[in-house]
Amino acid sequence: MKRRAKRPIPVVLAALGVLALAGCRSAEQYAENADRDAYEIVAARRAALAADAGNFSIERPADNLRAELLERPESERTLGPLDLARCLEIAAENARNYQSQREALFLTALDLTLERFRFAVQTGGSLRALVSGDGDEATDASVGGSVGFTKLLGSGALIVGGLGIDLFRSLLSSDGWDAVSTANFSITQPLLAGFGRRIVEEPLTQAERNVVYAVRSYERFRRSFAFDVASRVYRILQQHDNLVNEQANYDSLEALRRRNEALAQSGRLSEIQVDQARQDVLRAESRLIDARQRLEGLYDDFKLFLGLPVETHFELDAADLVALVDAGIEVFDVEEHEAIALALELRLDHQSVLDRVDDAERRVYVAKDALRGVLDVEFDVGATSEVGKPLDFRGDNVDWSLGLNLDLPFERLPQRNAYRERLINLEAARRDAEESRDGLLLQVRAALRELTSRRQTYEIQRNSTALAERRVESTRLNFEAGRAETRDLLEAQNALLEARNALTSALVDHRLAALALYRDMELLRVDEGGLAIELEPLVLLRENALPLGIES
What pTM did the predictor assign? Predict the structure, then answer.
Protein backbone atom coordinates (compact mmCIF):
# COMPACT_ATOMS: atom_id res chain seq x y z
CA MET A 1 0.00 0.00 0.00
CA LYS A 2 1.31 3.49 -0.88
CA ARG A 3 2.41 5.74 1.93
CA ARG A 4 0.58 8.99 1.93
CA ALA A 5 2.34 12.35 1.93
CA LYS A 6 2.51 14.07 5.26
CA ARG A 7 0.83 17.38 5.92
CA PRO A 8 4.08 19.40 5.55
CA ILE A 9 4.25 18.54 1.83
CA PRO A 10 1.73 21.22 0.76
CA VAL A 11 3.52 23.57 3.13
CA VAL A 12 6.81 22.94 1.31
CA LEU A 13 5.12 23.64 -2.01
CA ALA A 14 3.55 26.79 -0.59
CA ALA A 15 7.00 27.91 0.53
CA LEU A 16 8.26 27.45 -3.00
CA GLY A 17 5.41 29.63 -4.20
CA VAL A 18 6.23 32.35 -1.69
CA LEU A 19 9.86 32.33 -2.82
CA ALA A 20 8.80 32.55 -6.45
CA LEU A 21 6.52 35.49 -5.75
CA ALA A 22 9.26 37.17 -3.73
CA GLY A 23 11.46 37.11 -6.81
CA CYS A 24 8.92 39.11 -8.81
CA ARG A 25 9.56 42.85 -9.20
CA SER A 26 7.62 45.72 -10.64
CA ALA A 27 8.58 47.27 -13.96
CA GLU A 28 9.78 50.36 -12.09
CA GLN A 29 12.07 48.25 -9.90
CA TYR A 30 13.56 46.54 -12.96
CA ALA A 31 14.21 49.95 -14.54
CA GLU A 32 15.88 51.19 -11.34
CA ASN A 33 18.10 48.11 -11.22
CA ALA A 34 19.08 48.57 -14.85
CA ASP A 35 19.92 52.23 -14.19
CA ARG A 36 22.03 51.38 -11.15
CA ASP A 37 24.11 48.78 -12.98
CA ALA A 38 24.57 50.88 -16.13
CA TYR A 39 25.45 54.06 -14.24
CA GLU A 40 28.03 52.20 -12.17
CA ILE A 41 29.70 50.95 -15.36
CA VAL A 42 29.68 54.38 -16.98
CA ALA A 43 31.04 56.07 -13.85
CA ALA A 44 33.88 53.56 -13.57
CA ARG A 45 34.86 53.86 -17.22
CA ARG A 46 34.70 57.66 -17.20
CA ALA A 47 36.85 57.76 -14.08
CA ALA A 48 39.41 55.47 -15.72
CA LEU A 49 39.47 57.80 -18.72
CA ALA A 50 39.88 60.89 -16.50
CA ALA A 51 36.85 62.30 -18.27
CA ASP A 52 35.76 65.90 -18.15
CA ALA A 53 33.75 67.08 -15.19
CA GLY A 54 30.00 66.61 -15.10
CA ASN A 55 27.53 64.06 -13.80
CA PHE A 56 26.10 61.52 -16.19
CA SER A 57 22.40 60.80 -16.40
CA ILE A 58 19.96 60.09 -19.22
CA GLU A 59 17.06 61.52 -17.23
CA ARG A 60 16.29 65.14 -18.03
CA PRO A 61 15.50 67.14 -14.87
CA ALA A 62 11.80 67.72 -14.37
CA ASP A 63 12.55 71.42 -13.96
CA ASN A 64 14.70 71.72 -17.09
CA LEU A 65 14.84 75.10 -18.75
CA ARG A 66 12.81 74.12 -21.80
CA ALA A 67 9.94 72.80 -19.68
CA GLU A 68 10.08 75.88 -17.49
CA LEU A 69 9.90 78.21 -20.48
CA LEU A 70 7.00 76.34 -22.05
CA GLU A 71 5.01 76.75 -18.84
CA ARG A 72 5.23 80.52 -19.16
CA PRO A 73 3.01 82.62 -21.43
CA GLU A 74 4.72 83.13 -24.77
CA SER A 75 5.24 86.83 -24.08
CA GLU A 76 7.21 85.99 -20.91
CA ARG A 77 9.58 83.44 -22.42
CA THR A 78 12.64 85.59 -21.97
CA LEU A 79 16.06 85.04 -20.46
CA GLY A 80 18.69 87.42 -19.21
CA PRO A 81 21.99 87.91 -21.02
CA LEU A 82 23.71 84.55 -21.50
CA ASP A 83 27.47 84.09 -21.44
CA LEU A 84 29.35 81.20 -23.02
CA ALA A 85 29.45 79.14 -19.80
CA ARG A 86 25.67 79.43 -19.37
CA CYS A 87 25.09 78.49 -23.02
CA LEU A 88 27.18 75.34 -22.51
CA GLU A 89 25.13 74.47 -19.44
CA ILE A 90 21.83 74.99 -21.26
CA ALA A 91 23.01 72.94 -24.24
CA ALA A 92 24.10 70.04 -22.04
CA GLU A 93 20.67 69.94 -20.43
CA ASN A 94 18.40 70.60 -23.40
CA ALA A 95 20.15 69.86 -26.71
CA ARG A 96 18.59 66.86 -28.42
CA ASN A 97 21.75 65.40 -29.95
CA TYR A 98 23.45 65.69 -26.55
CA GLN A 99 20.68 63.56 -25.08
CA SER A 100 21.06 61.04 -27.91
CA GLN A 101 24.77 60.69 -27.12
CA ARG A 102 24.04 60.04 -23.45
CA GLU A 103 21.47 57.41 -24.34
CA ALA A 104 23.87 55.70 -26.76
CA LEU A 105 26.48 55.40 -23.99
CA PHE A 106 23.89 54.16 -21.51
CA LEU A 107 22.63 51.47 -23.91
CA THR A 108 26.18 50.26 -24.54
CA ALA A 109 26.67 49.90 -20.78
CA LEU A 110 23.34 48.06 -20.61
CA ASP A 111 24.58 45.60 -23.22
CA LEU A 112 27.57 44.90 -21.00
CA THR A 113 25.30 44.00 -18.08
CA LEU A 114 23.72 41.34 -20.29
CA GLU A 115 27.10 39.79 -21.16
CA ARG A 116 28.09 39.79 -17.51
CA PHE A 117 24.80 38.11 -16.69
CA ARG A 118 25.70 35.24 -19.02
CA PHE A 119 28.61 34.34 -16.72
CA ALA A 120 26.69 34.77 -13.47
CA VAL A 121 24.75 32.04 -11.70
CA GLN A 122 21.33 32.16 -13.32
CA THR A 123 18.47 30.88 -11.20
CA GLY A 124 14.90 30.17 -12.08
CA GLY A 125 11.77 28.49 -10.81
CA SER A 126 8.28 27.50 -11.81
CA LEU A 127 4.95 26.45 -10.30
CA ARG A 128 2.32 24.46 -12.06
CA ALA A 129 -1.13 23.00 -11.38
CA LEU A 130 -3.21 20.58 -13.44
CA VAL A 131 -6.67 19.01 -13.23
CA SER A 132 -7.59 16.26 -15.70
CA GLY A 133 -10.76 14.27 -16.17
CA ASP A 134 -12.95 12.14 -18.34
CA GLY A 135 -16.10 13.62 -19.86
CA ASP A 136 -17.77 15.92 -17.39
CA GLU A 137 -15.99 14.46 -14.35
CA ALA A 138 -12.58 15.51 -12.93
CA THR A 139 -10.50 12.48 -12.04
CA ASP A 140 -6.99 13.64 -11.10
CA ALA A 141 -5.21 16.73 -9.79
CA SER A 142 -1.57 17.64 -9.47
CA VAL A 143 0.53 20.58 -8.37
CA GLY A 144 4.25 21.01 -8.47
CA GLY A 145 7.18 23.34 -8.45
CA SER A 146 10.85 23.41 -9.34
CA VAL A 147 13.93 25.55 -8.87
CA GLY A 148 17.13 25.39 -10.85
CA PHE A 149 20.32 27.14 -11.84
CA THR A 150 22.81 27.35 -14.70
CA LYS A 151 26.40 28.54 -14.65
CA LEU A 152 28.77 29.13 -17.57
CA LEU A 153 32.44 28.85 -16.70
CA GLY A 154 35.37 30.51 -18.45
CA SER A 155 36.54 27.13 -19.74
CA GLY A 156 33.27 26.78 -21.64
CA ALA A 157 31.77 24.31 -19.17
CA LEU A 158 28.02 24.63 -18.68
CA ILE A 159 26.65 23.50 -15.32
CA VAL A 160 22.92 22.89 -14.92
CA GLY A 161 21.14 21.79 -11.74
CA GLY A 162 17.57 21.60 -10.55
CA LEU A 163 15.22 20.36 -7.84
CA GLY A 164 11.49 19.74 -8.22
CA ILE A 165 8.55 18.38 -6.26
CA ASP A 166 5.14 17.18 -7.48
CA LEU A 167 1.96 16.41 -5.55
CA PHE A 168 -0.85 14.44 -7.11
CA ARG A 169 -4.05 12.72 -6.03
CA SER A 170 -7.08 10.98 -7.40
CA LEU A 171 -10.27 13.00 -7.12
CA LEU A 172 -12.39 9.82 -7.33
CA SER A 173 -11.19 8.54 -3.99
CA SER A 174 -10.65 10.00 -0.58
CA ASP A 175 -6.93 9.31 -0.63
CA GLY A 176 -4.61 12.16 0.31
CA TRP A 177 -1.85 13.68 -1.76
CA ASP A 178 1.07 11.62 -2.99
CA ALA A 179 4.42 13.35 -3.42
CA VAL A 180 7.52 12.69 -5.49
CA SER A 181 10.60 14.85 -5.95
CA THR A 182 13.40 14.91 -8.54
CA ALA A 183 16.93 16.28 -8.60
CA ASN A 184 19.29 16.60 -11.53
CA PHE A 185 22.78 17.90 -12.18
CA SER A 186 24.80 18.00 -15.42
CA ILE A 187 28.10 19.34 -16.72
CA THR A 188 29.06 19.75 -20.38
CA GLN A 189 32.70 20.66 -21.07
CA PRO A 190 34.02 21.38 -24.60
CA LEU A 191 37.51 19.98 -25.23
CA LEU A 192 38.18 21.21 -28.78
CA ALA A 193 36.16 24.02 -30.45
CA GLY A 194 34.72 26.38 -27.86
CA PHE A 195 37.29 25.54 -25.18
CA GLY A 196 39.15 28.18 -23.18
CA ARG A 197 38.55 31.55 -21.61
CA ARG A 198 39.76 33.48 -24.64
CA ILE A 199 37.05 31.90 -26.78
CA VAL A 200 34.23 31.70 -24.30
CA GLU A 201 34.61 35.22 -22.90
CA GLU A 202 35.04 36.95 -26.26
CA PRO A 203 31.49 38.42 -26.23
CA LEU A 204 32.12 39.76 -22.71
CA THR A 205 35.52 41.14 -23.73
CA GLN A 206 34.02 42.90 -26.73
CA ALA A 207 31.17 44.31 -24.64
CA GLU A 208 33.70 45.70 -22.13
CA ARG A 209 35.67 47.32 -24.94
CA ASN A 210 32.50 48.68 -26.55
CA VAL A 211 31.81 50.60 -23.35
CA VAL A 212 35.31 52.06 -23.49
CA TYR A 213 34.71 53.11 -27.09
CA ALA A 214 31.33 54.60 -26.18
CA VAL A 215 32.84 56.59 -23.30
CA ARG A 216 35.57 57.92 -25.59
CA SER A 217 32.99 58.81 -28.22
CA TYR A 218 30.85 60.57 -25.61
CA GLU A 219 33.76 62.61 -24.24
CA ARG A 220 34.93 63.46 -27.74
CA PHE A 221 31.39 64.57 -28.58
CA ARG A 222 31.20 66.76 -25.47
CA ARG A 223 34.39 68.58 -26.44
CA SER A 224 33.45 68.94 -30.10
CA PHE A 225 29.96 70.02 -29.09
CA ALA A 226 31.38 72.64 -26.73
CA PHE A 227 33.45 73.97 -29.62
CA ASP A 228 30.29 74.17 -31.74
CA VAL A 229 28.55 76.12 -28.97
CA ALA A 230 31.51 78.51 -28.69
CA SER A 231 31.58 78.94 -32.46
CA ARG A 232 27.90 79.89 -32.57
CA VAL A 233 28.24 82.24 -29.59
CA TYR A 234 31.19 84.09 -31.11
CA ARG A 235 29.52 84.30 -34.52
CA ILE A 236 26.42 85.82 -32.97
CA LEU A 237 28.53 88.30 -31.01
CA GLN A 238 30.38 89.10 -34.23
CA GLN A 239 27.07 89.80 -35.94
CA HIS A 240 26.06 91.98 -32.97
CA ASP A 241 29.23 93.99 -33.51
CA ASN A 242 28.53 94.19 -37.23
CA LEU A 243 25.06 95.50 -36.46
CA VAL A 244 26.53 98.17 -34.16
CA ASN A 245 28.94 99.16 -36.92
CA GLU A 246 26.16 99.26 -39.49
CA GLN A 247 24.04 101.41 -37.19
CA ALA A 248 26.94 103.80 -36.56
CA ASN A 249 27.60 103.96 -40.29
CA TYR A 250 23.92 104.68 -40.98
CA ASP A 251 23.80 107.41 -38.33
CA SER A 252 26.95 109.01 -39.74
CA LEU A 253 25.63 108.91 -43.30
CA GLU A 254 22.27 110.27 -42.19
CA ALA A 255 24.01 113.19 -40.50
CA LEU A 256 26.00 113.78 -43.67
CA ARG A 257 22.81 113.75 -45.76
CA ARG A 258 21.16 116.33 -43.55
CA ARG A 259 24.27 118.49 -43.69
CA ASN A 260 24.48 118.23 -47.48
CA GLU A 261 20.81 119.09 -47.90
CA ALA A 262 21.28 122.16 -45.71
CA LEU A 263 24.33 123.23 -47.72
CA ALA A 264 22.45 122.64 -50.98
CA GLN A 265 19.57 124.81 -49.85
CA SER A 266 22.01 127.63 -49.20
CA GLY A 267 23.57 127.10 -52.63
CA ARG A 268 26.91 126.00 -51.27
CA LEU A 269 26.69 122.37 -52.49
CA SER A 270 25.46 120.74 -55.68
CA GLU A 271 22.46 118.45 -55.87
CA ILE A 272 24.74 115.69 -57.19
CA GLN A 273 26.55 115.46 -53.87
CA VAL A 274 23.23 115.57 -52.03
CA ASP A 275 21.97 112.64 -54.08
CA GLN A 276 25.21 110.76 -53.47
CA ALA A 277 24.67 111.09 -49.72
CA ARG A 278 21.03 110.07 -50.03
CA GLN A 279 21.92 107.01 -52.09
CA ASP A 280 24.50 105.84 -49.54
CA VAL A 281 22.00 106.36 -46.74
CA LEU A 282 19.57 104.07 -48.55
CA ARG A 283 22.29 101.47 -49.07
CA ALA A 284 23.27 101.73 -45.40
CA GLU A 285 19.65 101.30 -44.34
CA SER A 286 19.35 98.20 -46.51
CA ARG A 287 22.53 96.75 -45.01
CA LEU A 288 21.23 97.56 -41.54
CA ILE A 289 17.99 95.66 -42.22
CA ASP A 290 19.96 92.70 -43.60
CA ALA A 291 22.26 92.73 -40.56
CA ARG A 292 19.27 92.59 -38.20
CA GLN A 293 17.75 89.72 -40.16
CA ARG A 294 21.02 87.76 -40.13
CA LEU A 295 21.30 88.28 -36.38
CA GLU A 296 17.73 87.10 -35.80
CA GLY A 297 18.36 84.08 -37.99
CA LEU A 298 21.53 83.20 -36.04
CA TYR A 299 19.59 83.46 -32.79
CA ASP A 300 16.78 81.22 -34.06
CA ASP A 301 19.25 78.60 -35.26
CA PHE A 302 21.03 78.78 -31.92
CA LYS A 303 17.79 78.28 -29.98
CA LEU A 304 17.04 75.17 -32.03
CA PHE A 305 20.60 73.96 -31.48
CA LEU A 306 20.29 74.48 -27.71
CA GLY A 307 16.90 72.72 -27.58
CA LEU A 308 15.04 75.82 -26.39
CA PRO A 309 11.62 76.95 -27.68
CA VAL A 310 12.28 79.06 -30.77
CA GLU A 311 9.97 81.81 -29.49
CA THR A 312 12.25 82.35 -26.48
CA HIS A 313 13.92 85.76 -26.43
CA PHE A 314 17.41 86.31 -25.08
CA GLU A 315 20.64 88.06 -25.94
CA LEU A 316 24.21 86.95 -25.48
CA ASP A 317 26.42 88.72 -23.00
CA ALA A 318 28.72 91.05 -24.93
CA ALA A 319 31.33 90.61 -22.17
CA ASP A 320 32.63 87.49 -23.95
CA LEU A 321 33.49 89.53 -27.05
CA VAL A 322 34.86 92.41 -24.96
CA ALA A 323 37.14 89.97 -23.14
CA LEU A 324 38.26 88.56 -26.47
CA VAL A 325 39.05 92.05 -27.79
CA ASP A 326 40.90 92.97 -24.62
CA ALA A 327 42.95 89.76 -24.69
CA GLY A 328 43.91 90.25 -28.32
CA ILE A 329 45.74 87.54 -30.24
CA GLU A 330 46.77 84.54 -28.20
CA VAL A 331 50.41 83.56 -28.34
CA PHE A 332 50.61 79.97 -29.59
CA ASP A 333 54.03 78.38 -29.27
CA VAL A 334 53.36 74.72 -30.07
CA GLU A 335 55.55 73.26 -32.80
CA GLU A 336 54.08 71.08 -35.52
CA HIS A 337 55.79 67.89 -34.33
CA GLU A 338 54.50 68.54 -30.79
CA ALA A 339 50.94 69.08 -31.97
CA ILE A 340 51.04 65.89 -34.04
CA ALA A 341 52.56 63.88 -31.20
CA LEU A 342 49.88 65.03 -28.76
CA ALA A 343 47.10 64.27 -31.21
CA LEU A 344 48.41 60.77 -31.94
CA GLU A 345 48.69 60.03 -28.25
CA LEU A 346 45.55 61.69 -26.89
CA ARG A 347 42.88 61.74 -29.57
CA LEU A 348 40.07 59.56 -28.23
CA ASP A 349 38.64 58.67 -31.63
CA HIS A 350 42.07 57.62 -32.91
CA GLN A 351 42.62 55.41 -29.84
CA SER A 352 39.38 53.58 -30.57
CA VAL A 353 40.35 53.00 -34.20
CA LEU A 354 43.67 51.48 -33.07
CA ASP A 355 41.96 49.27 -30.49
CA ARG A 356 39.57 47.94 -33.10
CA VAL A 357 42.54 46.29 -34.79
CA ASP A 358 42.93 44.20 -31.62
CA ASP A 359 39.22 43.40 -31.78
CA ALA A 360 39.61 42.17 -35.34
CA GLU A 361 42.59 39.99 -34.34
CA ARG A 362 40.57 38.37 -31.56
CA ARG A 363 37.73 37.64 -33.97
CA VAL A 364 40.19 35.91 -36.29
CA TYR A 365 41.31 33.72 -33.37
CA VAL A 366 37.70 32.84 -32.51
CA ALA A 367 36.84 32.06 -36.14
CA LYS A 368 39.95 29.88 -36.43
CA ASP A 369 38.90 27.94 -33.32
CA ALA A 370 35.50 27.26 -34.89
CA LEU A 371 37.22 25.31 -37.70
CA ARG A 372 38.12 22.57 -35.25
CA GLY A 373 35.90 19.61 -34.46
CA VAL A 374 33.52 19.60 -31.52
CA LEU A 375 34.35 17.26 -28.66
CA ASP A 376 32.28 17.57 -25.50
CA VAL A 377 32.44 15.65 -22.24
CA GLU A 378 28.98 15.24 -20.76
CA PHE A 379 28.16 14.14 -17.23
CA ASP A 380 24.60 13.80 -15.95
CA VAL A 381 23.25 12.64 -12.63
CA GLY A 382 19.62 12.52 -11.59
CA ALA A 383 17.52 11.11 -8.78
CA THR A 384 13.83 10.51 -8.15
CA SER A 385 12.38 9.92 -4.70
CA GLU A 386 9.90 7.20 -3.89
CA VAL A 387 6.28 8.18 -3.97
CA GLY A 388 5.34 9.69 -0.64
CA LYS A 389 8.97 10.27 0.36
CA PRO A 390 9.97 13.62 -1.20
CA LEU A 391 13.54 14.72 -0.73
CA ASP A 392 14.47 11.18 0.24
CA PHE A 393 16.98 10.20 -2.45
CA ARG A 394 18.57 6.81 -2.01
CA GLY A 395 21.31 5.23 -4.02
CA ASP A 396 18.95 2.87 -5.82
CA ASN A 397 17.08 5.84 -7.29
CA VAL A 398 20.13 7.69 -8.60
CA ASP A 399 21.04 7.48 -12.30
CA TRP A 400 24.16 8.86 -13.90
CA SER A 401 25.92 8.90 -17.24
CA LEU A 402 29.31 9.96 -18.55
CA GLY A 403 30.00 10.28 -22.25
CA LEU A 404 31.76 11.96 -25.12
CA ASN A 405 30.14 13.72 -28.05
CA LEU A 406 32.40 14.12 -31.08
CA ASP A 407 31.45 16.14 -34.16
CA LEU A 408 34.14 15.52 -36.75
CA PRO A 409 35.15 18.56 -38.87
CA PHE A 410 34.28 16.94 -42.21
CA GLU A 411 32.35 19.96 -43.46
CA ARG A 412 33.24 23.45 -42.25
CA LEU A 413 32.24 25.65 -45.18
CA PRO A 414 30.28 28.19 -43.07
CA GLN A 415 33.14 28.29 -40.57
CA ARG A 416 35.67 28.53 -43.40
CA ASN A 417 33.87 31.50 -44.93
CA ALA A 418 33.56 33.18 -41.56
CA TYR A 419 37.28 32.74 -40.93
CA ARG A 420 38.17 34.22 -44.32
CA GLU A 421 35.80 37.11 -43.70
CA ARG A 422 37.48 37.82 -40.34
CA LEU A 423 40.88 37.89 -42.05
CA ILE A 424 39.61 40.45 -44.55
CA ASN A 425 38.04 42.49 -41.75
CA LEU A 426 41.39 42.49 -39.96
CA GLU A 427 43.12 43.97 -42.97
CA ALA A 428 40.34 46.55 -43.27
CA ALA A 429 40.81 47.49 -39.60
CA ARG A 430 44.53 47.96 -40.17
CA ARG A 431 43.82 50.19 -43.15
CA ASP A 432 41.38 52.19 -41.04
CA ALA A 433 44.12 52.68 -38.45
CA GLU A 434 46.53 53.89 -41.15
CA GLU A 435 43.90 56.23 -42.57
CA SER A 436 43.06 57.55 -39.11
CA ARG A 437 46.71 58.38 -38.47
CA ASP A 438 47.18 60.08 -41.82
CA GLY A 439 43.88 61.95 -41.52
CA LEU A 440 44.78 63.10 -38.03
CA LEU A 441 48.12 64.46 -39.25
CA LEU A 442 46.42 66.30 -42.09
CA GLN A 443 43.85 67.72 -39.71
CA VAL A 444 46.44 69.02 -37.27
CA ARG A 445 48.67 70.44 -40.00
CA ALA A 446 45.67 72.18 -41.58
CA ALA A 447 44.63 73.57 -38.18
CA LEU A 448 48.12 74.95 -37.61
CA ARG A 449 48.13 76.61 -41.03
CA GLU A 450 44.67 78.01 -40.37
CA LEU A 451 45.79 79.49 -37.06
CA THR A 452 48.86 81.08 -38.63
CA SER A 453 46.78 82.48 -41.47
CA ARG A 454 44.18 83.90 -39.08
CA ARG A 455 46.87 85.58 -36.98
CA GLN A 456 48.33 87.24 -40.07
CA THR A 457 44.87 88.28 -41.26
CA TYR A 458 44.14 89.83 -37.87
CA GLU A 459 47.33 91.90 -37.99
CA ILE A 460 46.45 93.06 -41.51
CA GLN A 461 42.90 94.00 -40.53
CA ARG A 462 44.05 95.81 -37.41
CA ASN A 463 46.37 97.96 -39.48
CA SER A 464 43.67 98.40 -42.09
CA THR A 465 41.19 99.58 -39.45
CA ALA A 466 43.65 102.09 -38.02
CA LEU A 467 44.33 103.39 -41.53
CA ALA A 468 40.60 103.61 -42.33
CA GLU A 469 39.96 105.59 -39.14
CA ARG A 470 42.71 108.07 -40.02
CA ARG A 471 41.38 108.29 -43.57
CA VAL A 472 37.86 109.11 -42.40
CA GLU A 473 39.11 111.78 -40.02
CA SER A 474 41.38 113.33 -42.65
CA THR A 475 38.69 113.25 -45.32
CA ARG A 476 36.13 114.79 -42.99
CA LEU A 477 38.47 117.69 -42.17
CA ASN A 478 39.18 118.22 -45.87
CA PHE A 479 35.47 118.00 -46.67
CA GLU A 480 34.59 120.60 -44.08
CA ALA A 481 37.39 122.80 -45.46
CA GLY A 482 36.02 122.36 -48.98
CA ARG A 483 39.05 120.42 -50.20
CA ALA A 484 37.16 117.09 -50.62
CA GLU A 485 33.86 116.07 -52.11
CA THR A 486 31.02 114.02 -50.69
CA ARG A 487 32.06 110.96 -52.67
CA ASP A 488 35.51 111.00 -50.99
CA LEU A 489 33.93 111.01 -47.54
CA LEU A 490 31.42 108.32 -48.47
CA GLU A 491 34.15 106.04 -49.78
CA ALA A 492 36.25 106.59 -46.66
CA GLN A 493 33.23 105.89 -44.44
CA ASN A 494 32.43 102.68 -46.32
CA ALA A 495 36.07 101.54 -46.09
CA LEU A 496 35.98 102.10 -42.31
CA LEU A 497 32.80 100.04 -41.98
CA GLU A 498 34.30 97.17 -43.94
CA ALA A 499 37.57 97.36 -41.99
CA ARG A 500 35.82 97.27 -38.60
CA ASN A 501 33.66 94.33 -39.59
CA ALA A 502 36.67 92.53 -41.04
CA LEU A 503 38.67 93.16 -37.85
CA THR A 504 35.99 91.60 -35.65
CA SER A 505 35.70 88.70 -38.07
CA ALA A 506 39.47 88.17 -38.02
CA LEU A 507 39.56 88.22 -34.23
CA VAL A 508 36.72 85.68 -33.94
CA ASP A 509 38.24 83.53 -36.70
CA HIS A 510 41.56 83.44 -34.85
CA ARG A 511 39.90 82.48 -31.56
CA LEU A 512 37.94 79.67 -33.19
CA ALA A 513 41.02 78.47 -35.07
CA ALA A 514 42.91 78.25 -31.76
CA LEU A 515 40.04 76.36 -30.11
CA ALA A 516 39.85 74.02 -33.12
CA LEU A 517 43.55 73.23 -32.83
CA TYR A 518 43.23 72.54 -29.10
CA ARG A 519 40.26 70.30 -29.93
CA ASP A 520 42.22 68.44 -32.59
CA MET A 521 45.08 67.87 -30.12
CA GLU A 522 42.55 66.68 -27.49
CA LEU A 523 43.55 69.49 -25.12
CA LEU A 524 40.12 71.13 -25.06
CA ARG A 525 38.19 70.42 -21.87
CA VAL A 526 34.66 71.09 -20.63
CA ASP A 527 34.25 71.96 -16.95
CA GLU A 528 31.78 73.82 -14.73
CA GLY A 529 33.24 77.14 -15.82
CA GLY A 530 32.87 76.43 -19.53
CA LEU A 531 35.78 75.75 -21.86
CA ALA A 532 39.29 75.16 -20.57
CA ILE A 533 42.64 74.23 -22.10
CA GLU A 534 44.62 71.37 -20.52
CA LEU A 535 48.30 72.15 -21.08
CA GLU A 536 49.77 69.52 -18.75
CA PRO A 537 50.22 66.94 -21.57
CA LEU A 538 52.27 69.50 -23.50
CA VAL A 539 54.47 70.12 -20.44
CA LEU A 540 54.98 66.38 -19.95
CA LEU A 541 55.79 65.97 -23.61
CA ARG A 542 58.54 68.55 -23.40
CA GLU A 543 59.91 67.16 -20.16
CA ASN A 544 60.21 63.66 -21.63
CA ALA A 545 62.05 65.03 -24.67
CA LEU A 546 60.63 62.22 -26.87
CA PRO A 547 57.39 62.91 -28.78
CA LEU A 548 54.52 60.76 -27.56
CA GLY A 549 53.15 58.26 -30.04
CA ILE A 550 56.07 58.65 -32.50
CA GLU A 551 58.97 56.24 -32.67
CA SER A 552 62.41 57.72 -32.19
Answer: 0.87
